Amino acid sequence: MSSRTASCHCGQLRIEVEGEPRFVGICHCLACQQRTGSVFAALASFSVPYRVFGKATEFVRAGDQGAKFRFRFCPVCGTKLFHTEEGELEGVGVAVGAFADPNFPAPQYSIYDCRRHPWVQLPPGTKAFGKDPT
Ligand SMILES: [Zn+2]
Ligand SMILES: [Zn+2]
């Protein structure tokens, strides 16, 4: 199986995942906008197992539906590299940009589309949800 490695900006924190993503989504919620400093977050979900190299600091955020998301970021450069959902042991969400791979698969889902900046255009065929579908 092929593997991919996503890295923080300074290279201290890395995550290696295997196979193709379970899904790729972009999220326009205001928490993701502030979390990333960008106008939307691009996330790819991968199945376990995965391997983490380096030190991560954690930040837990409760979603609108009560789910707890545990974000891991690099304590040196601050890149938010990956997150897990509490009670969900099957997968990990990795920031797509951290793969630094322009050929990474495009998103299938657009989440919190109600918060999308109007100038952001979705790729054709993207399924849009007003809020979080889960
Ligand atoms: Zn770093
Ligand atoms: Zn979000």
Task: Summarize it.
The protein is 5% helix and 40% strand. The protein has 134 residues and is mainly β.
Main features:
single chain, 134 residues, mainly beta, 1 helix, globular, binds zinc ion
Bound molecules: zinc ion
Distance between the termini: 29 Å
Query: Mean of residue pLDDT?
Result: 94
Strand content: 35-45%
Order of helices and strands: EEEHEEEEEEEE
* Morphology: globular
Helix content: under 10%
Structural class: mainly beta
Rg estimate, integer Å? 14 Å
Number of helices: 1
Low-confidence stretches: none
Within the largest sheet, what's the order of strands?
6-7-8-9-4-3-10-11
Number of strands: 11
Describe, in plain words, how this protein is organized in 3D.
It contains one helix and eleven strands, in the order βββαββββββββ. It has one helix at residues 30-36; strands spanning 3-7, 14-18, 23-27, 41-47, 50-53, 57-62, 68-73, 80-85, 91-95, 109-111, 127-128. The strands form two sheets. It has an eight-stranded mixed sheet. It has a three-stranded antiparallel sheet with strand order 1-2-5, with no helix packed on it. The protein is globular and about 35 Å long. It starts with a strand and ends in a 6-residue tail after the last strand. One zinc ion (ZN) binds next to loops.
Topology, element by element:
Layout: E1 3-7, E2 14-18, E3 23-27, H1 30-36, E4 41-47, E5 50-53, E6 57-62, E7 68-73, E8 80-85, E9 91-95, E10 109-111, E11 127-128
Parallel strand pairs: 3-10, 10-11
Antiparallel strand pairs: 1-2, 2-5, 3-4, 4-9, 6-7, 7-8, 8-9
Bound molecules: zinc ion (2 copies).
One zinc ion binds next to loops.
